[in-house]
Amino acid sequence: MEFATFAARAGEIDAEDADLEIVDLVSDLLVAAGDAPAGDRDELEIVSRFVQGRVFPAWEQTTLDIGPSACYEAIARAAGRNVTAADVEDRLAEVGEIGAVAASYEFGGQRGLGAFGAGNGVDDLTVAEVADTLEAVAAAEGAGSQDRKVDLLFGLFNRCESEEARYLARLVLSEMRIGVGEGTVRDAVADAFGVPAEDVERALQVSNDYGRVARVAREAGLEGLAEMDLEVGRPVQAMLAQAGTVTDALADWETAAVEWKYDGARVQLHHDPTGETRLFSRNMEDVTNALPEIVEFAEETLETTAILDGEVVAVDDGGEPLPFQNVLRRFRRKHDVARAREDVTVRPAFFDCLHADGEDYLERPLTERHDRLEALLADGETAPEAVEGLSLLWLTDDADEIEAIDADALEAGHEGIMLKDPGSTYSPGRRGKHWRKRKPDVETLDCVVTGAEWGEGRRATYLGTFELSVRTDDGFEPVGKVATGITDERLAELTELLEPHILAQDGQEVDLEPAVVFEVGYEEIQRSPTYSSGFALRFPRFLAVRDDKEPADADSLERVRTLRS
Ligand code: AMP
Question: Which of 113, 351, 455, 473 could be cross-linked to 391 through a Cys-Cys bond (beta carbons 3.0 to 4.6 Å apart)?
Fold first, then answer.
């Protein structure tokens, strides 16, 4: 297919607003690309990517590795002797969009390295030639590679007519923006080759390669699409979560799968015992080299091919989780990894299994995937809670039990909990209702601390599990307890603050004189026979000490009543 044809159709798509019309236009484009004489390359694959502004499949790590200024330079050179990269930039500042800038010059006829073609500088550039050249741009590495990239791009622009230049410039700078998203290509492939959109969608999820899916749909139809599987070493998009409450989760599913929410960075592990172990970030970037201990963990633990989904958490010397910023110091690190590893240790917490031992698990229910995960990581003897690298999953329909799991998660230094639909499949790239992170607190309350409990073991000298009360006309009434879910340092500070106010002690329990005010978050307020106030905070969370407030300034029972209604 001539690149000019692609550009003309991209222009039509660009000018169209209606979604269905866009799908039709893209579908026509795909059919045309599929019908064009294929030559050495399948232009349908290329066009399916170009139309989305992609040069390479989503899972590939390859990038053009070219900055805007190199592109301006190439445009300037193709535009003629009198044009400089600074002129291109000035024009960009005026018109605001690189495609329009590129289209505003007259190219062709500029001689020099890379100005190949039919002699007059303008000839029939094909889609395949553009793809070949852009691959060469990506492949140029090392000394002098930026010049080589500019030369190659100049060669392309030099052969472009105005409309071709418009879409070439946008493609190079990842600014295609003609309104073609992933859903459009899915529907267009389905329409162009007569296959159901759901099957295209599934094939896209497992392959992450629109070009390949389009080609398979054309060549092998539905059967071919159904045969497309996950491949160890090729990342898929991560399933995402939305915010939600425990109440809604239990109403929707009856039983919820509850997991700790780790405060780290998402990682997808691809392991082949006879080949490589690779790690990918949430954006499918290869982060293998930055996280050698995760690779070692996989090599020591996994005996079969596997694709696992999880979170990488930074831990201190005692194995306690450290805040997220520490993970960032390790993630994507390219240099001095060994040194960084000495400073910050990371551990995996895997919560899902997408593939094991040659079988894909995406379409199995969560509980089955988690069982498979556990079987992969466990040695058959260790209790699940002690299995290294395994995130536990609890099945429950009891909000109190969920609250206890949440308190444990906070206590262990994690972010809170995730609620998942136990029967749900794994949907790559989807932010659906099947995974919910417990909703962030909307309201906060300032409560007086009226009691506490001494901790146990390592924390025996600290006060924890604080009783929270609100003001009434004649004193204070309790509305809940909060286990801080914070570091030992914080507990030590709070103990120091509260200990002078101990009125009485009974075993581990202490009564406190109302003196200190905590700001707490919560999910909801419930009616409760447990507390004399008649109300209980569901999922209370310690947020801060309000040292600017006296007990008399704390929130009142009246406010709790109002918030509840
Ligand atoms: P957020 O980044 O706030 O949208 O929360 C979702 C993220 O939490 C996921 O992308 C994961 O990186 C992370 N996460 C931590 N623990 C879990 C878990 N048990 N299940 C799923 N995601 C988790």
Answer: 351
Q: What is the number of alpha carbons within 13 Å of residue 345 lying toward its C-beta? A: 10
pLDDT digits (tens, 9 = 90+) for 389-407: 999 999 999 988 998 999 8
Q: In what order do the strands lie in the sheet with 306-315?
A: 277-280, 265-271, 306-315, 345-356, 359-360
Q: Which domain holds residue 283?
A: 240-426
The chain-wide mean pLDDT, for the chain, equals: 92
Residues 506, 412 share a domain = no
CA distance 206 to 427: 10
Q: Could you tell me the distance, in angstroms and rounded to a whole number, from the CA of residue 494 to the centre of ligand 1?
A: 29
158-177: pLDDT as tens digits = 999 999 999 999 999 999 99
Q: Report the separation in Å between the CA atom of 381 and the middle of ligand 1, taken as the mean of its atom positions.
A: 29
Q: Is residue 198 part of a domain?
A: no
Residue nearest to atom 16 of ligand 1 (CA): 261
Report the distance separating Cα 232 and Cα 119, nearest Å: 47
Are 418 and 449 contained in the same domain?
no
Identify the pLDDT of residue 323.
Answer: 85
Select from 268, 308, 415, 418 the residue to mutate for testing ligand 1; criterion: most ligand atoms less than 8 Å from CB: 418
Residue 355 pLDDT level (bands cut at 50, 70, 90)? very high
The answer to whether 149 is a known catalytic residue is no
Instruction: Look at residue 432 and tell me if it is in a domain.
Output: no
| pLDDT higher than threshold 90 for residue 456 | no
The best mutation among 239, 242, 261 to test binding of ligand 1, ranked by most ligand atoms within 8 Å of the C-beta, falls on: 261
Whole-model pTM?
0.81
Number of domains in the chain: 3
In a shared domain, residues 168 and 276: no
Tell me, what CATH number does 406's domain have? Answer: 3.30.470.30
